[in-house]
Design a protein that fits this description.
flat; p53-like_TF_DNA-bd_sf; 2 domains; 5-stranded mixed sheet; DNA-binding; mainly alpha; DNA binding; 9 strands; nucleus; SHC Adaptor Protein; Glutathione S-transferase Yfyf (Class Pi), Chain A, domain 2; 12 helices; two-stranded antiparallel sheet; single chain; transcription; 456 residues; 57% helix
């Protein structure tokens, strides 16, 4: 019968879509393994590079030895250094090939991912809409709502996994620059994955919102909010609610810094620590909090007896309505370099709010003297032994490797509003519109311990 043929065709199409999802899952996992292999290889390369620098330092000390001993030591050191430099040259080529292979694998993944997304959003979703209209006019009931929801959830998960992988690959290249085509390839991949994210989010809102009025059913709301039924692991909110919070704080308070490339953004806490580990004390990065909706946090390196990495409790729109991000960073004198190695004042000084000189008394208005708000982190001041702002000192960091023509590169009882946050529950704003300016805000032109922040 015609109805039976239609069901068979739908079943075959659904089977094909599910098989493609399994293929995407496997190649995404394979890319993850390749990325870890690349990271481990690069870490060992850095260790060997530092050993080569140590041998170079020993050469400079040979002049203090007698002629005979100096000749003997010099010959041994030259042999070791020549062997190590030959290995470094070969391994740099291997690293570059690993990067190219990974980028090509991501290119193939994104091609398949875009095709799968087009099938679901441009074919299946439109057909579902038509079947809903027919069902409202006496046609057979439509029962594929749960299937569409599952597909869109899988799309979001795989898209986000690949975006995170591409970002991590970019960070590895920043940490160890090697001339080649990878930088351009990663830039193109970043643009492609951004377009895919934008298409998914806008389709899930614009098209489905139209369905509600067209079918006299709340189908659009059911699918869209169906994406949000499953909370993120260990959280009481969904991916889309978290994602829209990021978009909101970017739009309202952080867009200039995002466009300046000052916000690293989509990295988790462990990835932030991995990026900072070879950096000088005082190097920091800005990332979106994965424990609070619409939060952005500062992670920085300062090696003390207590810990090496510090994570400031997330700032939200409410905090930036009181004092801007740039002014807050300007208050914290021990934050010196924006990752990977840009001086903080060079990046943020144009956004600082002008302040009166201390020698200029504040003018009273209607009998009141206007106070000033300043960002302080009492726990860090105590742990670092810094008794006064600006008094911290930092150890110099030896130059780290770069396989390029340039000689050196850097490797890359408390206030209730300020408490140590064990990453617990947070209030949600269920009125978020996840499509709001996604494409505009995501397309930048350039490339479980919280510390309480207080205002005094």
């Amino acid at each position: 019968s015609p109805a039976g043929s239609l069901v068979d065709a739908m079943s075959q199409k659904h089977l094909q879509i599910n098989q493609t999802f399994e293929e995407l899952r496997l190649i995404t996992q394979d890319s993850e393994n390749e990325l870890k292999k690349l990271q481990q290889t690069q870490e060992y390369f850095i260790i060997q590079y530092q050993e080569n620098m140590r041998l170079q330092a020993q050469f400079s000390q040979l002049s203090q030895l007698g002629p005979q001993e100096r000749l003997s030591r010099e010959t041994t050191l030259q042999q070791k250094k020549a062997s190590l430099e030959a290995w470094l040259h070969r391994e740099a080529q291997t690293l570059q090939q690993y990067r190219v292979d990974l980028a090509e694998k991501h290119q193939k993944t994104l091609q398949l991912l875009r095709k799968q997304q087009t099938t679901i959003l441009d074919d299946e979703l439109i057909q579902w809409k038509r079947r809903q209209q027919l069902a409202g006019n006496g046609g057979p009931p439509e029962g594929t709502l749960d299937v569409l929801q599952t597909w869109c959830e899988k799309l979001a998960e795989i898209i986000w996994q690949n975006r995170q992988q591409i970002r991590r690959a970019e960070h590895l290249c920043q940490q160890l620059p090697i001339p080649g085509p990878v930088e351009e390839m990663l830039s193109e991949l970043n643009g492609t994955i951004t377009d895919i994210i934008s298409a998914l989010v806008t389709s899930c809102t614009q098209r489905l919102c139209c369905l509600t009025s067209a079918t006299r059913l709340e189908a659009g709301a059911l699918i869209f909010w169906g994406f949000q039924q499953e909370n993120l692991p260990g959280r009481n909110y969904t991916f889309w609610q978290w994602f829209d919070g990021v978009m909101e704080v970017l739009k309202k308070h952080l867009k200039p810094h995002w466009n300046d490339g000052a916000i690293l953004g989509f990295v988790n806490k462990q990835q932030a620590h991995d990026l900072l580990i070879n950096k000088p004390d005082g190097t920091f990065l800005l990332r979106f909090s994965d424990s609070e909706i619409g939060g952005i946090t500062i992670a920085w390196k300062f090696d003390s007896s207590e810990r090496m990495f510090w994570n400031l409790m997330p700032f939200t729109t409410r905090d930036f309505s009181i004092r801007s991000l740039a002014d807050r960073l300007g208050d914290l004198s021990y934050l010196i370099y924006v990752f990977p190695d840009r001086p903080k004042d060079e990046v943020f000084s144009k956004y600082y709010t002008p302040v009166l000189c201390e020698s200029t008394p504040a003018k009273a208005v209607d009998g009141y003297v206007k106070p000033q708000i300043k960002q302080v982190v009492p726990e860090f001041v105590s742990a670092s032994g810094d008794s006064a702002p600006g008094g911290a000192t930092y150890m110099d960091q030896a130059p780290s490797p770069a396989v390029c023509s340039q000689p050196h590169y850097n490797m890359y009882t408390q206030n209730p509003d300020a408490v140590l946050d064990p990453e617990g529950d947070f209030d949600l704003d269920d009125t978020m519109d996840v499509a709001r300016h996604v494409e505009e805000l995501l397309r930048r032109p350039v490339d479980s311990q919280w510390i309480p922040h207080a205002q005094s």
